[in-house]
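Input record, target 12 of the design panel.
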């Protein structure tokens, strides 16, 4: 797509690159932001990823073979930025789980007797049942979260 033609009168002009990117921004920003928040677990990091994708689209607009593919370009750019922000395989798995809607709590083992014992005594699970499989699973989950970059933590 070209830049706006410099002519007077009622001649129809093509929209500028900036105008086209602005239209895409208005139509798709919220959707792309939601996707990035789910992937990264952080609104701030998600906003950075989406902003970077739009800046990249604006810079690379002239090299795009098919301007109709701009929406797909944006989605791919956001996903790639999210993947590179996530880092390690464990962090990537966690991002995919958030994206897929998998509930990490569903993977925690049931240990009703340990939780009941802690509840009745009014103490933490770690104190009431230090060897409980549930307590061990929660500790593993906490360690995994602590290994995430601060911006990616839920």
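The sequence produced for target 12 reads:
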């Amino acid at each position: 797509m070209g830049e706006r033609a410099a002519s007077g009168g009622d001649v129809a002009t093509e929209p500028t690159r900036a105008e086209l990117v602005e239209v895409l921004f208005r139509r798709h920003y919220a959707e792309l932001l939601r996707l990035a928040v789910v992937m990264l677990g952080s609104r701030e990091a998600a906003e950075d990823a989406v902003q970077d994708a739009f800046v990249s689209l604006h810079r690379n607009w002239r090299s795009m073979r098919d301007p109709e593919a701009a929406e797909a370009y944006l989605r791919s750019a956001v996903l790639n930025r999210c993947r590179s922000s996530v880092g390690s395989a464990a962090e990537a798995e966690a991002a995919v789980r958030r994206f897929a809607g998998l509930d990490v709590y569903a993977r925690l083992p049931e240990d009703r007797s340990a939780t009941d014992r802690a509840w009745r005594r009014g103490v933490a699970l770690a104190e009431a049942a230090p060897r409980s499989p549930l307590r061990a699973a929660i500790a593993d989950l906490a360690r995994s979260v602590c290994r995430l970059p601060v911006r990616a933590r839920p």
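The two ends are 41 Å apart (CA to CA).
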